[in-house]
Amino acid sequence: xxxxxxxxxxxxxxxxxxxxxxxxxxxxxxxxxxxxxxxxxxxxxxxxxxxxxxxxxxxxxxxxxxxxxxxxxxxxxxxxxxxxxxxxxxxxxxxxxxxxxxxxxxxxxxxxxxxxxxxxxxxxxxxxxxxxxxxxxxxxxxxxxxxxxxxxxxxxxxxxxxxxxxxxxxxxxxxxxxxxxxxxxxxxxxxxxxxxxxxxxxxxxxxxxxxxxxxxxxxxxxxxxxxxxxxxxxxxxxxxxxxxxxxxxxxxxxxxxxxxxxxxxxxxxxxxxxxxxxxxxxxxxxxxxxxxxxxxxxxxxxxxxxxxxxxxxxxxxxxxxxxxxxxxxxxxxxxxxxxxxxxxxxxxxxxxxxxxxxxxxxxxxxxxxxxxxxxxxxxxxxxxxxxxxxxxxxxxxxxxxxxxxxxxxxxxxxxxxxxxxxxxxxxxxxxxxxxxxxxxxxxxxxxxxxxxxxxxxxxxxxxxxxxxxxxxxxxxxxxxxxxxxxxxxxxxxxxxxxxxxxxxxxxxxxxxxxxxxxxxxxxxxxxxxxxxxxxxxxxxxxxxxxxxxxxxxxxxxxxxxxxxxxxxxxxxxxxxxxxxxxxxxxxxxxxxxxxxxxxxxxxxxxxxxxxxxxxxxxxxxxxxxxxxxxxxxxxxxxxxxxxxxxxxxxxxxxxxxxxxxxx
Length: 663
Known about the structure:
Structural class: mainly beta
Number of helices: 10
């Protein structure tokens, strides 16, 4: 007869069965057998009575509940034993099943293969259900061995493999079984299909490139072949130790792909003060007003001169930036034309051209134009004879509401050394072409009062940035301390200010950049642009979209654009474990003249349709240990105050209604 006390304990027992097993609190817990163990064809548990320590196919683990010797029987915890062997306890309304063993939930009967057996082979101890190891061996058709004193036992079970001959096989390995926090986990995937079919789908669970919390991690892979047949899951376990090699920030700075974001909650940092190199007098013709063009007409016009922009007589440069939307009721095109008002022939070369059209989203137009611009190397040349008009650019047909964006660099050479060209931006209804007789009849359209047009001297701003000091630190572009270009609207003869310097090329020379990582933080709102990074050491230029997809919206999620892989940085990135000797060697290399002399060049243009200011943040990951980035003190010099952030309306966007984050 069951005593009331036992009934109360039985209630606790059923809760244990139905809930997930409680893991031991020690350093090791009951493991599921690895796939490698399953491939051996045998699962074997070795344990000693009255001890928690045990081994599964040679892998140490701990029982949470100690195996006992009771009444001459070796008793083991049923739940934990089943978990260790990766066997499922089946529950019915009134019974618990494991293999051929059935235990009634009220402990009224114990059946083996449907035949009643000694009920004392199952006992309730310390809130856990224990079963005789010999009864368990009979229920699972396992083999039982032991030491001469009978206290150390070995339970061996044949591991039957599931699956069919048509299933693909998921397989992978890791380069190690234990990793420090912040250490890269390298995985080799060697899954295959028995019939040689492709495996287009891979489903991972628990897989990360790196982990930042200690403990055990289970990585599981399942693959599908091209016929849609799935493999069985394949798993391996790794251990993340208490050692800290990198923080999430320092790891991302070292290994995350350029164009991806990192999380940096330590922003903002101290402001760097770039040195302005010799001023540039290249004229920037900016045409963005009216932005929504209501009728065909002349949008902007001004004259540029060959030989007036530098010391080389007979050579001149100019940049045209145009953004317009078709506000008419019919298809239209935007043209850029050049007219030679003099007798001497002028040659005009398109040294760089970027355009995006047609499109309706301003941010897309701005980024696509910059990517096109940075990548262009064609440099076609046209000869413009005296009195002749030629078309330098023609947009695709723009449906009503569609827009275009253009950034065009020109080089002029006049035979006489003093030639000039009249440059015009105009919109014509399709299929009209910009013939001289058509252009002469076009009205000059009025500006819309919200956007900018004008001619501004200084299409290029060259800056030098010394990165030898404490990092992280930032360069700020587009705020109140970054002077906007001043110019004149050549059509209305009125002053114009190009706030945000949209269309101006910032050319930054980064000195002492060895081991530096750069990231862009959008501080004024949404941003979608591009940057060109030149590595003089390798004679290589990379053009990166910022971001690679979508828009930058979180100021604390800067986008990586630079990783200066000098020898010291490469040595740091490839190390597996920090060692005193290697750290000292790295610091020695970093302090050498070679590392200090590493330089990079950035080309950055504020993207149309995006918001300013932006911060270019520079890190040196060797300075970021497990404690993370430490903000440097903000400068207090009157020459470099930290300004309140300025949200500058781009040529395509109004000022955001909410204030930007401070920084």
